[in-house]
């Protein structure tokens, strides 16, 4: 089943250029073509990494995939919804219900527990017009149960009442991933999710992503590191606003295996010291 269908996606920005005083009334705007007709699709259960050098358009593409921005041209159908012509209310609904965001900086509320952070998207959930309610018992109890389940799925059942300052970087990112999953989105969109983590925590998070993907979760990860892309199933590469490569990962690495080896190597180093 197709989750994302993009056809001829373009994104152009008009930038005003200051010129010396002149009586000329010519248009001083310069058009920057960030995306130049990108075709991209993703199926349910895929784990895709989006790569490209600085200025390649990958951040622009991520913003459009995440419905944080609209294309200047082309069509984008997300889980059956045409987003290119959607109004702001539909855009907000799509972001909240259809997409789970995971960012490099975690974006957790400091004075809120892990459980309460994960509950937040459920507070803001907008009921689709005509959708029947399937909640039983009080809404607060249902929200709490869903958040607890999401935290258990990421291995933090013993840390639910902890505040972000009481958690390691890897645990904070796990909370962020649980928050991204709590609404059961069509896909998880991760932007450099391990950028603030050391090697061990990075491998833990990539292992968690692989585990979630094995459970059927669709994941799209923006990264500039080939080492991380090797843990995904498919790599698309952008350059100068165009998709120049789309390849399946033939020799996929296991983050769990690499983490075990990393721990073994570090244990040996500690013994030598």
General description of the model:
By secondary structure, this protein is an alpha/beta fold. It is 34% helix and 26% strand. The protein has helices at residues 58-65, 88-97, 114-123, 139-153, 169-181, 199-214, 226-229, 255-272; strands at residues 2-16, 29-43, 47-51, 73-78, 81-82, 99-103, 187-191, 219-222, 234-239, 242-248. The strands form two sheets. A six-stranded mixed sheet has the order 6-7-8-3-9-10, sandwiched between helices. It has a four-stranded antiparallel sheet with strand order 2-1-4-5, with helices on one face. Helix 3 (114-123) packs parallel to helix 5 (169-181), helix 5 (169-181) runs parallel beside helix 6 and helix 6 (199-214) packs antiparallel against helix 8. The termini are far apart.
Quick overview:
This protein has eight helices and ten strands. The protein has helices at residues 58-65, 88-97, 114-123, 139-153, 169-181, 199-214, 226-229, 255-272, and strands spanning 2-16, 29-43, 47-51, 73-78, 81-82, 99-103, 187-191, 219-222, 234-239, 242-248.
Q: Which value, in Å, is the CA radius of gyration? A: 21 Å
Largest sheet: 6 strands, mixed
What class, by secondary structure content? alpha/beta
Averaged pLDDT, please?
89
Enumerate the spans where pLDDT stays under 50 for 5 or more consecutive residues. 128-132
Shape: globular
SSE pattern, N- to C-terminal: EEEHEEHEHHHEHEHEEH
Continuous helix count: 8
Distance between the termini: 53 Å
Strand composition percent: 25-35%
**Share of residues in helices:** 25-40%
The strand count comes to 10
Give me the side-by-side strand order of the main sheet: 6-7-8-3-9-10
């Amino acid at each position: 089943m197709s989750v994302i269908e993009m056809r001829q996606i373009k994104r152009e920005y008009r930038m005003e250029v200051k010129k010396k005083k002149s009586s000329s009334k010519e248009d001083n705007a310069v058009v920057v073509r960030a995306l130049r007709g990108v075709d991209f699709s993703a199926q349910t259960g895929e784990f895709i990494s989006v790569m490209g050098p600085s200025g390649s358009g990958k951040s622009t593409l991520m913003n459009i995939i995440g419905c944080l921005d609209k294309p200047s041209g082309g069509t984008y159908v997300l889980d059956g919804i045409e987003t290119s012509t959607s109004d702001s209310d539909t855009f907000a609904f799509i972001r909240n219900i259809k997409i789970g965001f995971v960012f490099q900086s975690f974006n957790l509320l400091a004075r809120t527990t892990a459980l309460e952070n994960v509950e937040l998207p459920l507070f803001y959930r907008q009921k689709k017009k005509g959708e029947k309610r399937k909640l039983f018992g009080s809404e607060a109890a249902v929200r709490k149960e869903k958040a607890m389940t999401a935290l258990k799925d990421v291995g933090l059942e013993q840390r639910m009442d902890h505040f972000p300052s009481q958690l390691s970087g890897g645990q904070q990112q796990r909370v962020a991933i649980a928050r991204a999953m709590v609404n059961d989105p069509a896909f998880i969109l991760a932007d450099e999710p391990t950028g603030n983590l050391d090697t061990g925590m990075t491998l833990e998070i990539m292992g968690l992503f692989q585990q979630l993907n094995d459970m059927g979760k669709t994941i799209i990860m923006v990264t500039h590191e080939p080492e991380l892309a090797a843990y995904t199933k498919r790599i698309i590469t952008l350059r100068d606003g165009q998709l120049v490569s789309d390849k399946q990962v033939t020799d996929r690495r296991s983050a769990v295996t690499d983490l075990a080896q990393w721990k073994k190597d570090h244990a040996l180093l500690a013994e030598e010291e």
